[in-house]
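Q: Hi! First time doing this. I have a protein sequence and I read that you can turn it into a structure. Is that right? Here it is:
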Amino acid sequence: MKHYPPPEPRALPITRRRIPAFHPVPLCPRSDGWTPERQAQFIGCLAESRSVLAACRRISMGRESAYRLRKRPGAAGFAAAWDAALGKPHEAVDLSSAKATGLDAGTRYHSGLLQVVMDAGRFVGIRRKPDHSALLQHLARLDRACANIDWA
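A: Yes, that's right. Below is the predicted 3D structure, encoded as C-alpha cells:
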C-alpha cells in the first residue's frame, strides 16, 4: 500500500486591490476614538485580513463603532475605501464635490486625503496627501464672499 504525503496547501494568489484615497470622517478629537490615522489603519488592516472584526481588534476599536462610523454624515469616501478593501464593487466618490463627500471645501482641505499604502497584500503605512482642489474651491468661495462686501 502506498502512502502519499498530504498535499501542500496552495498559497492564495495575491490580488492587488487599489484602495482609493479618502477624506477622514470628521469627528470630535479624542485620543481613544476614531482619529484620522486610526481610520486609515482600519482600512489597511481590513484590506489585509478581509475581516471587520479582525481589523477592529488589531487597532483596538469596537466592531459596532466601525459600522456607526461608516454611517455618519461625511463618510462617503471612508465607505468607498472600506468596500474597495473588501474587494466589493463600489461607486466612485468625487472627492472634489461637497455633494458626494458631504464635506465642505474648508473641511476637506484641512483634513487632507489619506492614502493607505499596501505592499504585496500587506498594510505598510499611511500617506497623507494635501487636497489642492479643495483649497482652490475654498479660496474661490472666499473671493466671492469678499466681492459682495462694500469696502467704502
